[in-house]
Write a structure and sequence with these properties.
Uridine Diphospho-n-acetylenolpyruvylglucosamine Reductase, domain 2; Uridine Diphospho-n-acetylenolpyruvylglucosamine Reductase, domain 3; 5-stranded antiparallel β-sheet; 9-stranded antiparallel β-sheet; alpha+beta; about 475 residues; binds flavin-adenine dinucleotide; 20 strands; 3 domains; Vanillyl-alcohol Oxidase, Chain A, domain 3
């Protein structure tokens, strides 16, 4: 379905503005550029209208307006993970709905749709608690959860979706409902991994976990060591307990001031570690890495979980990024060597970074039917490749390189997924469809057709596949 709207009547927009506590921005307004801005600056939204919502009531009004004017709807908290830009439609921003309430007795967090993980973990950390969050505190917690949610402690405590208790959702019909195991269980199932195409979530409640001791950081080698470090990592990772979550990376550090001097402009391999437990045990498990040929230094140390952003040191400032990911069927030392050879010479790669994250542990122990992320529970590792498109490094070249690497290692590639790792901006309908098993796909489609028959939410998750069909 393609929108044909070019503009909205001034009268209709005036009426909407009167109903909103937040704001509505139109092209041409002085603040429209900021309102339509995404963290991933490669995403160029060209909406007909942006609603900067501050409450569930605002979201209800926005969805009713979209229905009345037959508009598609895209939703954005931070703009870290927009699978498609919003064109000729409504963009609902939730960034200002970022209230966080911690219940230290029940060990739960209730937060608004716009809250980023850092805000939640700062509040939870005061009680020795944390959410199963990912590598970046600036990523929106809800967006992360709707795409599966592979966290730093996931091998120990499961995926983010395994800890969700309840969503508040404004459906395409313009109704606010609760989705939990008891109420609207179909929506609850679909949203936990099916992406943002079943309504606008306004509030979330999750279980928190106690994290009395946390240890993490990264160890570094020059990228020339990839052919020995990659296989060594694969052999070592297979021996680790669930309390240890690790990832293997290759990176071309740009020659810019915010990269610390020993790494600036260098191409490196590194291994991150995130351990839930005592420092002595972490150090014992990590000791072998320091003996791998060419080891340069590490940053491993004990820390409160709320400081765990330093494990991956993800970029904070807005950036153009273009990613692609594949779940791996296996990752033996021989296969790790194949991957190292497929990306060589990495220093001249169009990709900035490659990451192989270890899965399994608690992730694999949850029933496959519990949420539509079954393949993530089967796969032992996930591979993600990320590029920074520029005029000299166009997105097509970045994507072609990812596809070449995936083809060269196809004997141990399982499939695209999960949603959080399939990419941004130009995710194809084929790729999005391939994330799900056939059974989950049929169930998602049936739930989608009941809750969003006109496919208003067509810019994310299964909505973009329905849009293409
Ligand atoms: C630097 C970086 C680090 C990352 N680390 C991890 C990681 O460790 N583990 C992991 O699993 N993923 C990770 N990701 C992926 C990330 O979890 C996804 O990109 C996630 O979707 C981002 O959510 P957001 O709210 O920040 O982004 P947004 O772009 O604002 O939203 C992401 C998606 O959620 C939808 N959405 C947002 N709010 C709503 C709403 N209220 N209702 C309905 N739909 C909504 C959007 O339409 C979009 O499809 C990382 C991404 C980046 C860029």
């Amino acid at each position: 379905m393609t929108d044909t709207h070019d503009s909205l009547s001034a009268e209709a927009v005036r009426e909407l503005r009167e109903l909103l506590t937040g704001k509505a921005h139109l092209p041409g307004d002085a603040d429209f550029g900021n309102a339509a801005f995404a963290w991933n600056v490669a995403i160029e939204h060209r909406p007909l209208i942006v609603v900067d919502a501050v409450s569930e009531g605002d979201v209800l009004e926005a969805v009713r307006f979209a229905n009345a004017h037959d508009l598609g709807i895209a939703v954005q908290a931070t703009g870290h993970g927009q699978p498609r830009p919003c064109h000729h439609a409504m963009l609902i921003r939730t960034g200002r709905m970022d209230a966080v309430a911690i219940d230290p007795v029940a060990k739960t967090a209730r937060f608004g749709a716009g809250a980023a993980w850092g805000r939640i973990n700062d509040a939870a950390g005061e009680h020795g608690l944390a959410g199963v969050s990912g590598s970046s505190p600036n990523v929106g917690a809800l967006g992360y959860l709707m795409g599966g949610g592979l966290g730093l402690m996931s091998r120990r405590h499961g995926l983010g979706v395994d800890r969700v208790l309840r969503f508040r959702v404004v459906t395409a019909q313009g109704e606010a409902v609760t989705a939990s195991r008891e109420e609207n269980p179909d929506l609850f199932w679909a949203i936990r991994g099916g992406g943002g195409s079943f309504g606008v979530v306004t509030e979330v409640e999750i279980e928190l976990i106690e994290v009395p001791e946390f240890y993490g950081g990264a160890a570094f080698w020059s990228v020339e060591r990839a052919e020995s470090v990659f296989p060594a990592y694969a052999a070592w990772a297979a021996t680790l307990p669930d309390a240890m979550s690790t990832s293997l990376h290759a990176i071309n550090f740009p020659p810019v001031p915010f990269v610390p001097e020993p790494l600036r402009g260098r191409s490196m391999v590194y291994v991150t570690a995130a351990f839930v437990g005592p420092a002595e045990e972490a150090e014992r498990l990590l000791a072998p890495l320091r003996g791998w040929e060419g080891f340069e230094f590490d940053t491993y140390h004990p820390m409160p979980y709320r400081e765990s952003a330093c494990v991956h040191n993800d970029p904070v400032d807005p950036l153009p990024v273009s990613g692609s990911g594949r779940l791996l069927r296996s990752f033996t030392p021989d296969e790790a060597l194949e991957l190292a050879r497929a990306i060589s010479p990495f220093a001249s790669s169009p990709h900035l970074m490659l990451q192989v994250r270890h899965l399994q542990g608690a992730i694999a122990r949850v029933d496959r039917e519990d949420s539509p992320v079954g393949p993530t529970r089967e796969a032992p590792f996930v591979l993600h490749m990320l590029g920074v498109p520029t005029p000299h490094n166009p997105p097509e070249g970045i994507e072609a390189n990812a596809q070449r690497v995936f083809a060269e290692i196809r004997s141990f590639v399982l499939q695209p997924g999960p949603i959080n790792w399939v990419g941004e901006g130009g995710v194809s309908a084929e790729t999005m469809r391939a994330v799900f098993t056939d059974d989950d796909w049929d169930r998602l489609l049936e739930i989608k057709s009941r809750h969003d028959p006109k496919n208003r939410f067509r810019f994310a998750g299964i909505g973009l596949v329905v849009d293409a069909s």
